[in-house]
Automatic annotation (TrEMBL):
Coiled coil: none annotated. PROSITE patterns: HTH_LYSR. Pfam families: HTH_1, LysR_substrate. Residues 1-55 form the HTH lysR-type domain. This is Transcriptional regulator, LysR family. GO terms for molecular function: DNA binding; DNA-binding transcription factor activity. It comes from Salipiger mucosus DSM 16094. GO terms for cellular component: cytosol. Keywords: DNA-binding, Transcription, Transcription regulation. Belongs to the LysR transcriptional regulatory family.
Length: 306
């Protein structure tokens, strides 16, 4: 099964062999035996240098294999607990802005309380995180803009306010709040177009008849905040820091917006048995979110404090 998954994902017997540290002939033999056992062709082998192509039967098997691998991970986690080894594996997908804000403190505490726990943290955009959850590579996710589908279960959400971020020396830094017209003419550092927030901001600026000068765009909010701190321009972000405050920047609430900022959400695939480590992570997130007015989906939010 492992040989098949790697070949399907990498599109090459040789690449799979290198990753598995075995001979290409061994991988080829395993795939051939699997095809004989199932009496189907799993790969089209006539693509030359373009690589192998998974057949329709292969796609079905790959989908099922992802579920099997996920169940094996869960089983290992449960066995570890049964044996009292306090081991486990947290496979988490997270948006970059949260990886540098919320996550370090949470992981530090979980590592302290569960010293045998292993962490695999995938920092990606939400679309990639969802794909990895579907493929069974990630057990739980933390981020923005998860699609509202039945296959994704939302465990907790936190609504965050929208802020203009400036250097401490900027004239706006001493204000408590501003409106979009107040940033007219400012030099602006934008998130790039791969981030849904970009379109929200552009539409809001047009609706408010506000013109800013774009001096930079980036898919990294960490870099955005660092360049704001340097005085290169201002930025707009969802939420203040919750746990780590490294950059010396000012957060000025942006009021009267024509849109509502999307909530931070903790999600997992519906219908799959959660690992113990992901359940513990979800419980930690629920507790943290509750401190800031967040809520589980079946409850009413108590307010926005960020």
């Amino acid at each position: 099964m492992r040989h098949f998954i790697e070949v399907a994902q990498l599109g090459s017997f040789r690449a799979a062999a290198e990753k598995l540290h075995v001979a290409p002939s061994a991988v080829s033999k395993q795939i051939k035996n699997l095809e004989l056992a199932l009496d189907v062709e799993l790969f089209r082998r006539d693509r030359g240098r373009a690589g192998l192509e998974v057949t329709e039967a292969g796609e079905i098997l790959l989908f099922r294999c992802a579920s099997v691998v996920n169940e094996l991970t869960i089983a290992q986690d449960e066995i570890d607990q049964l044996q009292g080894l306090q081991r486990g594996h947290l496979r988490l997908g997270v948006n970059e802005v949260l990886a540098s804000d919320l996550l370090p403190g949470i992981l530090r505490d979980m590592s302290y309380n569960h010293p045998g726990l292993k962490f695999t943290i995938i920092v990606e955009n939400t679309r990639e995180i969802v794909e990895r959850m579907q493929d069974g590579e990630i057990d739980i996710a933390l981020g923005y803009n998860f699609p509202p589908t039945q296959e994704i279960e939302t465990l907790a959400t936190l609504q965050r306010r929208t802020y203009v971020v400036t250097s401490l020396h900027h004239p706006m830094a001493r204000l408590r709040s501003v409106r979009l017209p107040d940033i007219d003419g400012e030099k602006m550092i934008f998130p790039d177009h791969s981030i849904p927030m970009r379109q929200l901001l552009e539409d809001a600026l047009v609706q408010s008849d506000v013109t800013v000068r774009e001096v930079m765009s980036t898919n990294s909010f960490t870099l955005l905040r660092q360049m704001v701190e340097s005085g290169m321009g201002i930025g707009i972000v969802f939420g203040r820091f919750l746990q780590i405050r490294r950059e010396k920047i000012a957060f000025v609430e942006l009021a009267d917006l024509p849109f509502e900022s999307p909530p931070v959400a903790c999600c997992r695939m519906a219908g799959r048995t959660p690992t113990a480590s992901s359940t513990a992570f979800a419980a930690t997130i629920k507790t943290l979110f509750a401190q800031y007015g967040g809520h589980a989906p079946h409850r009413v939010a108590s307010g926005d404090r960020l």
